[in-house]
TrEMBL record:
Pfam families named among the record's database cross-references: Bac_DNA_binding
A GO CC term assigned to this protein in UniProt: chromosome
Listed GO MF terms: DNA binding; structural constituent of chromatin
Presence of the UniProt keyword Transcription in the record: yes
Quaternary structure (record): Heterodimer of an alpha and a beta chain.
BP terms from Gene Ontology: DNA recombination; regulation of DNA-templated transcription; regulation of translation
Family the entry assigns: Belongs to the bacterial histone-like protein family.
Keywords: DNA recombination, DNA-binding, Transcription, Transcription regulation, Translation regulation
Cited SMART domains: BHL (SM00411)
Protein name per its UniProtKB record: Integration host factor subunit beta
Entry keyword annotation includes Transcription: yes
Functional note: This protein is one of the two subunits of integration host factor, a specific DNA-binding protein that functions in genetic recombination as well as in transcriptional and translational control.
Superkingdom of origin: Bacteria
Length: 100
């Protein structure tokens, strides 16, 4: 699902709100989440999951073309941990696996 798919789905569900207003609301929520993560805050949405920042330590990698060692610096990356309700909803979508 893309951002425009989300906007269209919300606009269809809430017909009293225009598509433009729905687009603005989605943008506002995503911008607020991005800003919070950029400031190092944790975001928790009950039943869905939580977003946080994880630290990746510096490491040594290799250039795939030359095989030369390259130092990869430390960096901060966003991390998502799904909530129990989301994990269970996704798990129900799995087709039954035949173990015979």
């Amino acid at each position: 699902m893309t951002r425009s798919d989300l906007v269209n789905q919300l606009a269809e569900r809430f017909t009293q709100i225009t598509v433009k207003d729905t687009e603005y609301a989605v943008k506002t929520v995503l911008d607020a989440m991005s800003d919070a993560l950029a400031r190092g805050h944790r975001i928790e949405i009950r039943g869905f999951g939580s977003f946080s920042i994880s630290r990746r330590p510096p490491r040594v990698g290799r250039n795939p073309r030359s095989g030369e060692q390259v130092t990869i610096p430390e960096k901060l990356v966003p991390h998502f941990k799904p909530g129990k309700a989301l994990r269970e909803a996704v798990d129900k979508q799995l087709p039954a696996v035949d173990k015979t």
